[in-house]
Amino acid sequence: MGIERLYGCFLQRDVTDDDLKEPRLDRELAAKFSGKHRGSVRISTGRYYTKEEWERRRKKLLAVRLPG
Q: What is the number of domains present in the chain?
């Protein structure tokens, strides 16, 4: 895990020592917080691909034969 330190009654860990996972994008959660979000406009407006959607699109595009 990470290095843990005790400050008063709180146990604090260093985030830099944690193994961070890839975040999952959830369309319902993004839509719920879109009015309060001040980050990416694409995510706020729903103009993004989830990992599964991107893999399907990628396979479809790679299967297209190019002319010539």
A: 1
Residue range 19-67, pLDDT digits in tens: 777 777 777 877 787 777 677 777 777 788 888 889 999 999 999 999 9
Q: Is residue 40 one of the residues assigned to a domain?
A: yes
Look at residues 23, 57, 58 and name the one whose alpha carbon lies nearest to residue 40: 23
For residue 31, report the phi and psi dihedrals to the nearest 5 degrees: -70, -35
**Structure letter (DSSP) for residue 48:** -
Strands 10-13, 4-7: pairing is antiparallel
Query: Quick check: is 41 in a domain?
Result: yes
User: Other C-beta atoms within 10 Å of 31: how many?
Assistant: 13
Q: What is the pTM of this model?
A: 0.48
Helix (H) or strand (E) holding 11: strand 10-13
